[in-house]
Design goal:
alpha+beta; eight-stranded antiparallel beta barrel
Length: 170
């Protein structure tokens, strides 16, 4: 018998992120129409997620500490990340996160739950409880696709090739 944890363990690439206001207004795309993101579930019970807007601009400076107010505000609104431990409720198909660190500090020490559903290598996560987003209560819906191990090996080889070239030709 396959458990939900066995199905979740691995790395997932974000396909879509939509928020639906609980009062029935139009759907919101908080990170734009083409968000970027990675979600990692380890076999050890820890997880990490990073989501960013594909519409973020680069800073004028190459020093991240020299960003101006407008750049900082755009980055804060266009990026969310958190990590911590997770556990699975197999009977109700729910994953619960115990958040240790987050780019939004109010989430640290909090628990969040997501309803889990699968369709092949596609993972659907829906917030169990509404969250506050830009002043309104919403349910979040995220669609993720599993990243295959072969793709990871290829990325790792490219990284090693790149870093080796940097060391040889500084």
């Amino acid at each position: 018998m396959t458990t939900l944890k066995n199905e979740l363990v691995g790395t997932w690439q974000l396909l879509s992120y939509i928020e639906v206001p609980i009062k029935g207004a139009d759907s919101i795309f908080p990170m734009g129409q083409s968000p970027k993101g990675l979600l990692m579930y380890g076999a050890d019970g820890f997880m990490s997620v990073q989501i960013s807007s594909s519409e973020r601009s680069q800073y004028a400076s190459d020093d991240r500490y020299l960003a101006n107010e407008k750049e900082i505000q755009e980055q804060v609104k266009g990026f969310i990340a958190f990590a911590g431990s997770y556990k699975i409720d197999n009977n109700n198909a729910i994953v619960q996160y115990s958040i240790t660190t987050s780019s939004f500090p109010n989430w640290e020490g909090q628990f969040q739950e997501r309803k889990i559903d699968f369709e092949g290598d596609i993972l659907y996560l829906k917030s169990v409880e509404p969250i506050l987003s830009d002043g309104i209560m919403v349910n979040s819906y995220m669609t993720w696709q599993r990243i295959e191990k072969a793709e990871f090996v290829s990325r790792r080889e490219k990284f090693i090739e790149y870093t080796t070239a940097k060391v040889v030709n500084p």
